Amino acid sequence: MLTGAILILAPLFLGFAIVVSNRRLVTVLHYAVEALVYFILALLGLGLGQMDGLLSQLGAMAGQVAALVLVLLVANLAALWLFHRWQPMTLDAHPDQQRPGYHRLFLAGLKPLLAVLVGALAGYFLLPELGMVDEVATWSLMLLLFFIGLQLRNAGLSLRRLLMNRQGLGIAVVLMLSSLASGLLLIPLLSIPWHQALALASGFGWYSLSGIVIGDALGPAWGGVAFLNDVIREIIALALIPVIINARPAMAIGYGGATAMDFTLPVIRSSGGLACVPVAIASGFLLSFLSPVLMGVFLSFG
Predict the structure, then answer these.
(1) Where are the transmembrane segments (predicted)?
(2) Which residue of 39, 96, 257, 276 has the lowest C-beta tally within 10 Å?
(3) Residue 285's closest CA among 8, 26, 82, 12?
(4) Containing H/E element for 218?
């Protein structure tokens, strides 16, 4: 399992070490990442659809997802509220008046679920059992992590400046610690070893990563649970951010997890103003690095 952890982490750091100066190549990279994400999610669904006893396990999976989402939601928001009390943020006096299309954003948030559903239906009703699904998913994930590393390195962000952003760093650390504490609380609820519970709690909203990594290590059922937990986090964040960001910006930015630097960033900017942007990017960037590192480390104990 330690070898598997190294395989997860190595492509990310290798990509981060490479500088890409060609803007056209950066654009191609963006579309390649998007295509790979949906391909990986479809493979996750395919594994679920071909799982023995799928229908009999759906009830248990629903309870596990509900436990993960609820415990993480309460723990993350409580810890981020305390951080806000300790390190309050000052927002723009007049945040942007133009609001993003929330209907469009929610539909975009449902697209990952659709990709998994299509894969699951194809696996259950149409396709014969395919022996290479796990291997293809693993190699696709490694390629995705390499591309993500390239994107992070070439996003015009200075790692030193991101680490010096005290608000962003503090939010990322608080979310990480409260998530890991939640993982320990979930051990008796989920009836799994401590390292598996901590790995499940370390997705931070990165559903394409957590679903495949957890599924590869613990089986397709737990991969589905990890995916649903993280995609539901993203959907809840889209609903919460406009409501609480003016009063509790750390809570709004932090709960989005790794998505604060990409998917939920437009909502953060429009609802909280420009002052939130560097904080959100710093927090999301750090959590994007921490998530595969922590999952790899915890799963290596298995």
Answers:
(1) 6-21, 28-49, 61-84, 105-127, 139-157, 169-192, 204-228, 235-257, 277-301
(2) 96
(3) 12
(4) helix 207-218
